[in-house]
Amino acid sequence: MPEPVLRATVGVTAAPGRARVALSAAVGATLVPRLLHRTENSARVALVAGGAMILGGDTISLDIHVGAGCLLELSEVGGTVVYNADGVESWWTTRIVLDDGARLVWRGLETVISDGADLHRRTDITMAESARAVIREVTVFGRSGERGGRLLLESAVTCGDTPLLVESLDVRGDRPQPGVLGRHRVMESILLAGIRDSRSPDVDASDVMDLAGPGALARHLGEHLHESPLDPTWDRWTRTLMEDIT
Q1: Per-residue pLDDT tens for 96-129?
Q2: What is the pTM of this model?
Q3: How far is CA 87 from CA 6, 112, 114, 138, in A?
Q4: CA distance 135 to 129
Q5: Which residue of 5, 62, 98, 159 is 20 to 30 Å from 241, comparing CA positions?
Q6: 206 CB contacts (<8 Å, ≥6 apart)?
Q7: Residues 6+ apart with CB under 8 A from 242
């Protein structure tokens, strides 16, 4: 992977009165963090597009650090389009570090993989045993009338000394594989990390996979995002994370 040239960082640490929130973005960055609100141990930050993203050859790096006992809520102002680049690869790497008792809630919006796009997206999460996270990621293959290009999606999540999730998905919208994407255009994933899913027996868990350690992964494949059944799962997991804050 080329050296990151479009780097952005988000850091939150507790402080009396108002948390210290460190936000930065490289000159010309296509992803810019903006502070919406903060308390002494929490912050709400929006990720705003600073330009057309993502173009062929773009190398985006997002570093997130949540300090001990802090809560960071990340939102996105709009979805992301990976534009037709005639197969030229682009990269988006996210590195997340959560200290003792840290909490992260990130409801990601759609990433649209256009025809001719080739995106390598990697997320690495390193978290203390007492940290918690709920993260949503949505991929849509193709804009209207398109089948979509290629997405290489890699994730590695470690809680304390326990590897929670190591995954690699190589998917092409224009070359669907049975048992991977098939005829579907939308792939939605929600990760719960650092805490177990305390669902009641009557909750439908057909889209949820419990991880080897404290956590779970919910995933749904479909034709349209509005048909996704995962909204109740997101609400339940977010509520569980918030109730766990002491």
Answers
A1: 999 999 999 999 999 999 999 999 999 999 999 9
A2: 0.91
A3: 20, 15, 11, 21
A4: 17
A5: 62
A6: none
A7: 103
